[in-house]
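Subject: complex prediction, re-run

Hi both,

The earlier run crashed halfway through, so I resubmitted it with identical inputs.
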Amino acid sequence: MTLRRCIALTRAGITESLQFRLGTAVTLFGNLIYLVLVYFLWKSIYASSGVEVVNGMSFTDTMIYLILATALFNFLEMFIVWDMSRSIQSGKIILDLLKPMKYKRYMFWSYSGSHVVLFLLSFLPTFVVVMIVTHGAIPMGLNLLYFVISTVLALIVNFNIEMSVATICLYTESTWGINIVKETIVLLLSGASIPLAFFPETFRKIVQFLPFRAVYDIPLTVLLRKNGSDTPRGLLTLLGLQLGWAVVLTILSTLFWNHSVKKITVNGG
Amino acid sequence: MSDQIIVMNNVCKDFKVLNRHEGLKGSIRDLFSRDYKVVSAVKDVSLSINRGEIIGYLGPNGAGKSTTIKMMTGVLEPTSGEIIVNGTVPYKDRTRNCENIGVVFGQRSQLWWSLPLVESFKLLRDIYLVDKKDYDDMMELYRSLVDIEPILNKPVRQMSLGQRTLSDILAAFLHNPATVFLDEPTIGLDVSMKAKIRELILGLNKEKKTTVILTTHDMGDVDALCKRVVIIDKGEKIYDNDISHLKSYFGSYRTLRLKLADDTWEEMVIDESKTDIMEIITKKQKEQRIKDIELQDISTEEVIKKIYEGGAA
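This time it finished cleanly. Structure:
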C-alpha cells in the first residue's frame, strides 16, 4: 500500500514542478553559459598541452563527458539541505513529521516528481543534442539500460548524502557554509566538474572508492562504455560499488536521522 | 476505558538550554560552553480526554501549550510520565499515531502551495490511504457544511487567509481522524470568517464524533466551541473543568453598572459570594438618584485574563 503513497507524491511533484516553467528555462539558459565557459577553458587546456589525447581522453571525449555531467547534475541536484533548514526555521517541519510516513521516505518521494520532470526537460534534450552533434560518440545499446539503473542508484546515493548533510544542519542551526562545503566536495570528487581521469594517480585511487563517484562518474562511465564498463566484470564492479554505497549510506543516514530527530525541538506557538 | 481517547499521567518535559552570554566576548565563550540550564516546559500534567469532546486548551504565551501538543502528536518525547493517544504511545510509534490524528496550525499550512486545493486533497487521500467511498462521503459532508466549490480548483497560494485556514481544517479532517489538534485556527481572521470556521468545526465534530483539542487566544472560539476548558500556566495545569464553572472560579463575579443622576455610568465588578448587590445599590441610592441599573455576567475573556495575570494563587 505504500506504493500508492509513493505514486501520489511523485505525481504531485511532477504537477508542482511543471508550474515553474520559467525557472526551468532560466536554469537551462544558465547551463548554456556554463558550457560555453567549459568549452573555452578545456579548449585552451588542450591547446597548451600540445597533444591530442590527455590522460586517455581526447578533447571531444572530455567535452561529451562534461556536458553530460552538467546535464546529469541538473537532473540529480537536490535542495533538501535548503528546504529542510527553511522548514525547521519556520517550524513547518512539524507538519511533515506528522504525516503517516517515515520522514525520509516522505522526503524522497516528494522530490522524485521533480526528478522525473528534470530528466525529461533537461537531461533528455541535452542527451539528444550531444548524440546528434557527435555522430555516434555515445554508444547505443544495452549500455543505455545500464545507465538508467546506474542513474537510479546515483539518485539514491545523492539523496542520502543530502539527507546526512541536512541532518548535520539540525545541530549547527546554520546552513550556508555546510552546504557550500558539501557542494564543492561532491562536485569535485564525483567528477562533475573535472573528469576523474585528470586527477593525480594516488588521489584518483582514493576517490575511486568514495561514494561521491557513484553520483556522476559511474553513470557517465557506464553510458560512454569507458574504463572497462563494456565487459560484464567491469560493469558489475561499477554497479556493485554504487549499490554498496547506496545501501551503506541509506542505513547510515537513516540511523543518523532517527537519532537526531528525537533531539529537534520545533519552535513555535 | 475505551471512550478515553487521550490519557496523560504525570507528564513532564524539560529542555536543556545553553546559557548564553552577552556581547561578542560572550558569544565566543558560548561556542565552547557546556553551561546548560534545564527549563521545565511542562510539569506534572495529568489529563484525560473523552472521545468526541471539544477541549479548549488555554494558557498565556509560553505556558507549555505547544509542548504538550507536540508530545501528544509524538514529535516530542516526554521527559517523564505516560501519554497514550488512541491506544498508542505517540513518540514510540509516531507514524501509526499520525494516521489517527489531524493537525491545523493557524500560521502554517500543510497544503501544497502551488497546487489547486483538490490536488492537495487527493494527495492527502492517497497518503492516508483513504478509500474512494470514504473520501467521496467526506467531500459530500464538506459540501453540506461549507461552500467549497469556488475554492476547490484554486491554487493555495492564491487563497485569502480565511480560505486557506478553511482548507487546512478540511484537510485535517479528510482522513476522518479520531483526534484533531487545532492550534489557533482563527488567528488573523475577520469576524464573519471566524464564525464560519467555528460553525465548520462544530459541524465536523458533531457528524464525525471527532475529538478536538483547540488552543487559542480568542475567547470567542472558546465560548462558541468548548464545553470543557483546560488552562495551563508556567507548565502546570491550573484549571480543568466545564466552561460554566470557569466563571465562578474566583467566586461569582458580576459587573454592576449604574447610571447616575449626571448621566454617567459607574461600573464595578462584584463578587456575589462576598458582597450583596442589593446592599450596594441601596447604599448608592441614598447618596444620589439612580437612573438605570444593569447587571452583566463577567465575560470569559475577563476571567481568563484574571487567571493569566496570576490570580490563580
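The mean pLDDT of chain B is 87.

- K.
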